[in-house]
Amino acid sequence: MSQSTLRRLGTPIQVTLCFLLLPIACGAPADSGSSAASCVAPDPAATVVCVTAPLASDSQHAYQGIRALVGFYPSDQCTPGTEVMKNVYDLSQTCFGWRRSTGSSTRDNSATHFQCYRDRVCYTQHTQVLTCNTTATDKEFRTDACIKDDAGDVWLKLLGGTESCPAAPAGFSCPRSDPGAGTGGQS
Q1: Which of 52, 113, 146, 172 is the 20 to 30 Å CA partner of 119?
Q2: 147, 158 in Cβ contact below 8 A?
Q3: In whole angstroms, how far apart are CA 120 and each of 8, 61, 78, 135, 143?
């Protein structure tokens, strides 16, 4: 074959190999569990593998343009610069999913039911999927607190992006639940 024929066939052959023969080596997650959802490159400030793309129906969501930057920390001090992960949550999505590295594989998570305030975001998290359709846990992250996550020795802190959201009402607390006992559905 000529070099031009090989160049023309190179991309289809590479794509075929990636999708049929070598999915893990070509970047597909080892244990994604929710591959039906589209996963795209994250915001440059994030350190996750990928995030879900907005859907057309998300264009009507109340939090258009609101992206909450959250740091994940190895201790309850939430010391700047010690983040083990950063994620930029797109609050305009009815269901926002992200894939993170776990060393030799990946893990999927998703969130819905966002309530945005200047100093906090209330949300419902679903583990192991990008699609907000597993057991749910109601959670929050805040600018003024380092909050322990129920997933282990990791603490979360809201670093920014919610400045245009309203102030929380006096005495307001985000709904919180035990793991798996959160609000179902999506909004």
Answers
A1: 52
A2: no
A3: 52, 18, 16, 23, 6
